[in-house]
Amino acid sequence: MSDTATNKKAILDLEGGTCTSCSIAIEHFGKKLKGVSDIYVDRGTSTIQLSYNGDPETIDKIVGMVDRIGYSAALRTTE
């Protein structure tokens, strides 16, 4: 039950983590993080598409989570 009017979108570059089980793990753990409305790993472009609450800490949490499971993510753009 998120307020989509205040949600922002971000794209993160993903290094590693492009197999099916890797992307499922990133999406599964990402959806559990506070502030994340939706997260999708696009294996074709090696990106993470994120809908979140606009708090920069949420992006930091995603980057940290991806790092903890053995891959690397870096912010490309936000809207």
Blueprint (SSEs and pairs):
Elements: E1 8-15, H1 20-31, E2 36-42, E3 47-52, H2 56-68, E4 72-78
Antiparallel strand pairs: 1-3, 1-4, 2-3
Structure notes:
The chain has 79 residues and is an alpha+beta fold. The protein has a single domain (8-78), classed as Alpha-Beta Plaits (2-Layer Sandwich), CATH 3.30.70.100. Helix content is 32%, strand content 35%. It is built from 2 helices and 4 strands, in the order βαββαβ. A 4-stranded antiparallel β-sheet has the order 2-3-1-4, covered by helices on one side. The mean pLDDT is 92.
Quick synopsis:
By secondary structure, the protein is an alpha+beta fold. Helix content is 32%, strand content 35%.
N- to C-terminal separation? Answer: 21 Å
Radius of gyration: 11 Å
Strand adjacency order, main sheet: 2-3-1-4
Shape: globular
**Class of secondary structure makeup:** alpha+beta
* CATH classification, class level: Alpha Beta
CATH topology: Alpha-Beta Plaits
Strand percentage: 35-45%
Number of domain modules:
1
**Average pLDDT across residues?**
92
Strand segment tally: 4
Count of helical stretches: 2
